[in-house]
């Protein structure tokens, strides 16, 4: 199954080639099709094109048609801010009252990265407010609160599912009774189908094709769930989660040819599953290959590149793993937890400490190409790469870094 399938299926609207319109990019797997970036950082280090002070939140930036969209919380409002991607100048903002209060006194901003399709941004706030906003002028198209509508709990850290938009449907891991996954009409917000009883996780659903059928693949709080996109019929499920209740599932499922890869921390690890569209069969599973607390690894050929360990334990390390067997090819200790992107035949990582690191997609050893500190605070939001510009935010600041 090619990444082109995802690009055409998910983003059939009039988006530019350089757009980054959803979590993990155009193909929702951390890959960028851009080429001819600047990799000679010793001669010309990446330059910060502009910066902007931001409010609370862990939502990543998305970019569509020359506009960067920042979803954050300012005072008592959740705000979608449209910025000129080149200059950072504000174009418009859409705001609504924010009610989320974190039970642990952590960040009270939105966690979910918006999705932009066919001129509409779909955003899900920390308290379950699901909005469709027309990006031409920042006008509301429709709204509903999924926690209220489906009597779902907010979990430990609020709602964090980045909406999946496909075939005119907006799919969200809601977590209510009989409503683990819910599909809404993208034009009206009307419920189209709902299925299963799993509680919501902090992972975002993925789209796959198995046996010629489009399947929504979700990593819920309970484990794996596969649902027919068209009608909402449950196709397969598998319980796979930590025995520790105080745990989260956060990485996005990866579709690797006819396989599904899941990873989590808290003594859980990773699992590779063979899938025929109606059932799954375990290929391998362990807690020694790639146990990612929140970030999603990226595939390059027969290998995955991602971080193993927990950010709250300062145990993050970078790893290269053969995805078909789980064999660890190499480990770079003390790297820190990070988001990893594949672009131009190489890899970029943004560490939780705010460093941008370029390295080779090399299965033999870690080969660093360059490193630059770009932020001072904690970075957990997934970065965006569009038209040679990298957009990254920490707790207080958004930077646009030129990689041209």
Automatic annotation (TrEMBL):
It comes from the Bacteria. Keywords: Signal. SMART domains: PQQ. Residues 1-17 form the signal peptide. The keyword Thylakoid does not apply. Residues 48-144, 162-332 form the Pyrrolo-quinoline quinone repeat domain. Pfam families: PQQ_2. PANTHER family: CELL SURFACE PROTEIN, OUTER MEMBRANE PROTEIN ASSEMBLY FACTOR BAMB. This is Alcohol dehydrogenase.
């Amino acid at each position: 199954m090619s990444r082109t399938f995802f690009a055409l299926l998910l983003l059939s609207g009039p988006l530019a080639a350089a757009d980054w319109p959803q979590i993990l990019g155009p193909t929702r797997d951390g890959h960028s099709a851009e080429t001819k970036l600047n990799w000679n950082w010793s001669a010309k280090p990446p330059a910060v094109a502009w910066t902007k002070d931001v409010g609370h939140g862990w939502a990543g930036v998305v970019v569509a048609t020359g506009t960067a969209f920042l979803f954050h919380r300012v005072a008592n409002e959740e705000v979608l801010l449209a910025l000129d991607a080149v200059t950072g100048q504000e174009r418009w903002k859409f705001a609504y009252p924010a009610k989320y209060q974190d039970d642990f006194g952590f960040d009270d901003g939105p966690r979910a990265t918006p999705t932009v399709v066919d001129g509409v941004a779909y955003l899900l706030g920390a308290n379950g407010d699901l909005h469709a906003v027309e990006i031409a002028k920042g006008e509301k198209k429709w709204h509903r609160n999924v926690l209220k509508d489906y009597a779902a709990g907010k979990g430990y850290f609020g709602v964090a599912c980045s909406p999946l938009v496909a075939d005119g449907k907006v799919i969200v891991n809601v977590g209510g009774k009989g409503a683990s996954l819910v599909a809404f009409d993208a034009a009206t917000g009307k419920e189209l189908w709902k299925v299963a009883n799993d509680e919501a996780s902090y992972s975002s659903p993925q789209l796959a094709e198995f046996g010629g059928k489009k399947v929504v693949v979700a990593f819920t709080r309970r484990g794996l769930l596969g649902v027919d996109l068209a009608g909402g019929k449950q196709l397969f499920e598998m319980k796979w989660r930590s025995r520790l209740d105080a745990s989260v599932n956060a990485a996005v499922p990866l579709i690797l040819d006819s396989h599904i890869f899941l990873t989590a921390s808290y003594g859980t690890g990773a699992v590779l599953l063979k899938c025929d569209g109606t059932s799954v069969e375990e290929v391998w599973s362990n807690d020694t290959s790639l146990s990612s607390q929140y970030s999603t690894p990226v595939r390059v050929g027969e290998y995955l590149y991602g971080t193993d360990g927990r950010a709250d334990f300062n145990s993050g390390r970078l790893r290269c793993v053969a995805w078909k067997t789980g064999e660890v090819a190499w480990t770079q200790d003390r790297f820190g937890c990070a988001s990893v992107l594949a672009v131009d035949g190489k890899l970029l990582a943004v560490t939780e400490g705010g460093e941008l690191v370029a390295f080779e997609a090399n299965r033999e050893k870690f080969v660093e190409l360059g490193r630059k500190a770009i932020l001072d605070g904690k970075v957990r939001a997934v970065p965006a790469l569009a038209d040679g510009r990298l957009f990254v935010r920490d707790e207080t600041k958004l930077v646009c870094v030129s990689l041209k």
